Amino acid sequence: MKTKTIYYLLSVLLFTALFYDQFVGLNLSILALALFGISTYVQPYKGITKNFKFAIIGGSLGALSFAYYGDFVSFLVVFLSLNWVAMLMFDPHQKLFKLFILAPLNYLMSLPNVVDSNTDISTEGSSQIFKKVLAYAIVPLLITSVFAMAYVASSDVASDFFANLNLNIEFSFKKFLWVLILGIVLMYFFWYFKLPQKWLLVSAPLQDDYKTHSFTTTSTFDMIRKSAEITFVMLNITLLIFIAVYGIENLSAAEKVNSVSANVHKRVYAVIGSILMAITLILFFFRGSFNFDKQNLNLKRLTLAWICLNAVLVFIAFAKNIEYVYMLGFTKKRLGVFLFLILCWIGLYLTFKKVHLKKTNWYLIHRMTAVTYASFVLIAVFNRGWIITKFNIETGIPIENELWYYDYTLSGNEVLLYDYFLETNNRSKMIELKLEYLNDIHTWELDGEIQPIYTQYIIKKKALDK
């Protein structure tokens, strides 16, 4: 019969085997995929919710991306996914938004229990055979092995004996002990997610739907509704005028290359800020019993008009950023602007659904958190460096442009750059690129680090291509 204790011990052993005297590299991806697979097997059928599937799929994609690229975004996806899966195994109904609060609490609550002898890490529910094997063989063997390695490390005679066997085994007890302790702690955080019981009660007020639709109308209630209607009338008129001015300024006026970068950043940041304030204002007026006011039809229409106008504003900023990219080239920052603007569109759409379906404000917060997580997974999967560099090559950015220096700092575009220099017969750039990566080969061989798959492919290509 399945029990978490078995998988906890196996996870500790796997962690120790993967990370003893090794760097992160592919090992984190292997560990993450193993944990995702085991947790799916362990989780009861009723506990495999949509959120659980979402976390497993997103985390697995992030782990594969980290194995291929080894970048920070992929690592972030893996880290968030592991914590989310651990939280969902503890309570399948927890929302992703609460992870940023509950995960640190789990660390604080679980850490003392790692060394607490009264903590229930038992094989209850497992077969008697496994209990006996664990008690009579595995545990004594592990403990004896640890002490034996400690004794060998402290004895010259024992060390010389094993050295003369020509096993070519280099062992550091101190490193092994630290990795083992780290594995015990981190795997405990994963398998034994722990929270105070009172924190589970927080789930009730964070639901997407209201428990009751009844309310009592007061004079203050009517006054707030009228105030909201006046506010949105004024906001719609103001935004309509601003869109006309903003559109003319962005889509008609010819700007100098030197000033276009600063102007676009300033305007896009202003648009994103205004969208966030717009959504916040809508959440304020459509909260609680205000959603079920039978006299708020005009307010809903005004709100819908304002959402549509804000969507037009985002479209203008999106079009201006496209022009900016074609004028000055593609960068990660400009790619991030596109992502933020798309998130603004999604946020406006979900805000409309929240108002139309009479949902709580948590409905929007939960879904935007999930959308943001999905966007990180999407970013991690695609080779951003390759896409950016390919665009810059196809649009004919001059080799003297400072953007080429920026392209050198990207990851995932090395083969593309090298092939481009080969096609254009730019020998100096080819030699520069090759020397850089040959130097990296020497460094990595000394460190003994397992590199991401994509990087290994690049290094071999550069080393063999004379």
Model description:
The chain has 466 residues and is mostly helical. It has 3 domains: 202 residues, no CATH class; 143 residues; 80 residues, no CATH class. Helix content is 74%, strand content 0%. It contains 19 helices and no strands. α5 crosses α8 and α11 packs antiparallel against α12. The longest helix is centred in the middle third of the chain and has 33 residues. The radius of gyration is 29 Å and the shape is flat. About 4% of the residues have low confidence.
Query: How many domains is the backbone divided into?
Result: 3
Using DSSP, what is the number of strands?
A: 0
Q: How many angstroms does the end-to-end distance come to?
A: 58 Å
Helix/strand-derived class?
mainly alpha
Spans of 5+ residues with little confidence (pLDDT < 50)? 123-127, 438-450
Number of helical segments?
A: 19
Rg to the nearest angstrom? 29 Å
Overall mean pLDDT score?
75
Estimate percent helicity. Answer: over 70%
How do the helices and strands follow one another from N- to C-terminus? HHHHHHHHHHHHHHHHHHH
Biggest pleated sheet: none
**How large is the share of residues in beta strands?**
under 5%
- Name the overall outline: flat
